[in-house]
Amino acid sequence: MEENNVLLRMEDISKSFPGVKALDHAQLTLRAGTVHALMGENGAGKSTLMKCLFGIYSKDEGHIFLEGQEINFKSSREALDHGVAMVHQELNQALKRNVMDNIWLGRYPKMKGLPFVSEKQMYADTMRVFEELDVHVDPKMVMSKMPVSQRQMVEIAKAVSFNSKVIVLDEPTSSLTEQEVEHLFRIINMLRDRGCGIIYISHKMDEILRISDEVTIMRDGQYIATRDARDLTKAEIIRLMVGREMTNQFPPKLDVASDEDILKVENLSAQYSILTDVSFSLKKGEILGVAGLDGSGRTELLENIFGAATRRGGKIFKDGAQVANKSPKEAIANGFALVTEERRATGIFGILTIRENTVISSLKSYLRGIFLNNAAMSEATDRMIQAMSIKTPSQKTKIQSLSGGNQQKVIFGRWILTSPDILLLDEPTRGIDVGAKYEIYELIQDLAKQGKSVIMVSSEMPELLGVCNRILVMSGGRLAGEVDADHTSQEEIMTLAAKYV
Ligand SMILES: Nc1ncnc2c1ncn2[C@@H]1O[C@H](COP(=O)(O)OP(=O)(O)OP(=O)(O)O)[C@@H](O)[C@H]1O
Ligand SMILES: [Mg+2]
User: Would the CB of 405 count as within 6 Å of ligand 1?
Assistant: First the structure.
């Protein structure tokens, strides 16, 4: 054993892709029985460093030691067999197969003395792990039928089933509710108590400070610092991540809302969700926030306006005229756009380029006669790359080679370019680093300045208070109240959010 319980040591790791030096002498030291946060801006190299550990990418340079022994895994299976597991940012599971297949794939328990898989044994083994983790999922459930959060739990259970010593969680909470996050943290604490080392990648500063013992910060593929989490403040982390002082998290507040209503929603209720009897109006140039607890109907409200869910009742008026918005297609034609919460799952054409992914929803505006104007598409794409500092060697790069956060920015840009009159945003800055968040707020403000209107759902209260003019508060599927963002407090919003719970 090395000194101070060192479990894993990564030294001088470098890795280049065509046009990008993704890792430039990066390093990381993980101790047994600790949670080690890995932080950095979108594209800093966090996921790549972990993929080098797992043999998903082969490193160009550097050394990796597991309990003092140099290792060089060639596949994630080899890593798993050595007790090193990873829950990926992009879950890659066999969705058509069931839960236990996904956990035991490639190492099915056999019937005694026979070459047949013992389903019974597999079921029992799965239940044993689930009970240990307090996970309530049917081992026979088909993966595609489960929400992302449960699929993630299955992935964690798989890591545990291999008796892993090192577990990497790459942005594990981006699609979890608050209760699910608590559950995950209980599991992490249990694993830490057993002596596991956990590498935790996230952009959520509060979670990092809560769960981690040590923090390593990367920038542009390079190692910046490792600190004891107790000695760190949010401001310090941000400074180390972006390499400069970031005095403001939000651009100056904008108030360009006109007196004119662009949208009126009357008594909107959903057929298959808890959304009930919601009425409100939206002004031209207004940035309207929607607050509420998980499950309060915020996402459902946006989906219903956009025609992506079945309505039970209610009316929608745009510019005074009633619109049906029975389908997303119709809503888009009526000048609406929705940027969903699950951008990565629903919006990415992996093998297409950044340019194609950017312009795909606004192709009509680049038509010159029957031809697409390449120069115009290229100009628009460049504008989005600049506006959000999308980290890419070129716009001809395939989107799947971008970092997770940068993929999200491309999808965001796609909807901005459709130049909707009403832009519906569900958790617009999820998975996005602090610097890029600022840029996204500016893009939202630019739209407002052009007289467009924005409705923005967010779980981050400071974001709603920092960017919006007015905030609707949802509770139990209903509208619990409405507050002026400049004259309210987190307490007032929380009180409203609990009104019908
Ligand atoms: N397969 C690949 N081909 C080409 N470039 C890649 C590939 N994988 C990663 N990169 C590049 O390496 C850099 C680091 O990406 P990485 O995914 O490690 O970032 P990250 O820190 O995980 O960011 P995020 O917070 O957005 O997930 C980026 O510039 C990315 O575009
Ligand atoms: Mg990543």
Answer: yes
- The reply to whether ligand 1 has any atom less than 6 angstroms from the CB of 53 is no
Residue 108: how many CB atoms within 10 A of its CB? Answer: 15
pLDDT tens, position by position, 141-175: 998 888 777 888 888 898 888 889 999 999 887 77
Flag whether pLDDT at 246 surpasses 70.
yes
Domains and CATH numbers, the chain: 3-242 (3.40.50.300), 248-335+421-431+451-501 (3.40.50.300), 342-419 (no CATH)
In the reported structure, the alpha carbon of residue 230 is separated from the centroid of ligand 2 by a whole-number distance in angstroms of 24
pTM assigned to the model: 0.85
Q: Best mutation site among 14, 15, 20, 39 for ligand 1, i.e. most ligand atoms within 8 A of its Cβ?
A: 20
Of 188, 164, 168, residue with least CA distance to 80: 164
Structure token pair of residue 460: 């981050």
pLDDT average, residue stretch 35-60: 95
The pLDDT score that the predictor gives to residue 1 is 43
Task: Give the model confidence (pLDDT) of 257-303 as tens digits.
Answer: 999 999 999 999 999 899 999 999 999 999 999 999 888 999 999 99
Q: Is the CB of 42 under 6 A from ligand 1?
A: yes
- Is the predicted pLDDT of residue 346 greater than 70, yes or no? no
* Residue pair 6/30 in contact by the 8 Å Cβ criterion: yes
HEC-encoded secondary structure of 408-462:
HHHHHHHHHHCCCCEEEEECCCCCCCHHHHHHHHHHHHHHHHCCCEEEEECCCHH
Say which ligand is closest to the CA of 48. 1
CA-CA distance, 152 to 135, in Å (whole number)?
11
**Ligand showing the shortest atom-to-Cα distance for residue 391:** 1
Q: Which atom of ligand 1 is found nearest the CA of 48? A: 18
